[in-house]
């Protein structure tokens, strides 16, 4: 009888990543609060970590999507997964926009401010207004096409990497034995890429420390008092969306949203510290595979969600637009609110590939809806960092749930493995790189 394999020793508490990140975030808050200059000076730590992760996003997406598509026996399956994914994305992201409107109308977070738009200085938000003119559905579609094959990897635009990856995967799948050899080469590169990711992730606490210290040191806590109702409303709305909407979807798919959040808590804390959902893209893809989702579905659904399924950003768009209308005593009719919703449906896709997407897309909406003074953007510049944290957290959770749902919908979710991992999510280590 073979002896049972001894259990691996538990890590000491100080060696657990999420505890290190929590300590770093708390330390960053203290530094920013009591030594603002030092907090601002620590900004390069956060920038460096985000830069290192973004450096790896293109190769991660490329390797995973190429492996997923080229490894499918039936290429028609790629189209089926894609159609199901887009249907899910459109339904849930539209619901997020509607929820933002409902909460804004019900709570009136901007009521009583009575701000005269003429007194606002738009210079601080001018750069976002300029970028907003470049957004739109047609420019969004054209943004998928890089000028050269290499530009897709050097430009850092997710839509372009998606296009190149899908085309490469389809090409390899059509080349028979030669394609199989090419696929094995991609698998080798994938192992190297994730080995680099593991090294970078170890510096996450430093990134979280720098990001949080800079945020608190730059904007402070007292300066947010006049906008605290909007911040609180946005965070509460996003929490309700995650618990109620995504929770119901998760329950229908056979898992608990709370257990899922516990499973990805390390990644969520990194997002909180860096205010960027991109920083956890590689690790989230590995963890979703660890839940029993097939690699092909993970590769197609999760990265695509960064373009088409930004639930947190959608809530922010409609909630913030109506907040600015209320703050400037601008009355909007039902038809105008309906028009706002319809334009946001397009604009939320059109601005997805743009840096600072939430604020840029909001600027595009205000530019297209003249009833709401675009000068109101100046009110939100100071709290953008705090709003972006919540947007990023909601986006990551939403795309994780979407990947699990589409995988079950496609019949490629290992339910036994999902139940096993979800039974003790807090004790699950990040699965090893493929």
**Proportion in β-strands:** under 5%
Instruction: Provide the domain count.
Output: 1
With helices defined by DSSP (H or I, 4 residues minimum), what is the helix count? Answer: 21
Distance N to C terminus? 31 Å
In CATH, what is the homologous superfamily? Sodium:dicarboxylate symporter
| Strand elements, count | 0
From the 3D coordinates, which CATH architecture would you assign?
Orthogonal Bundle
Low-confidence stretches: 1-5, 350-355, 429-434
Q: Helical content, roughly?
A: over 70%
Q: Kindly report the CATH topology.
A: Proton glutamate symport protein
Rg estimate, integer Å: 22 Å
- SSE string, helices as H and strands as E: HHHHHHHHHHHHHHHHHHHHH
- Helix/strand/pairing class, anyone? mainly alpha
Sheet with most strands: none
Nearest-integer average pLDDT: 78
The gross shape turns out to be globular
What's the level 1 CATH class?
Mainly Alpha
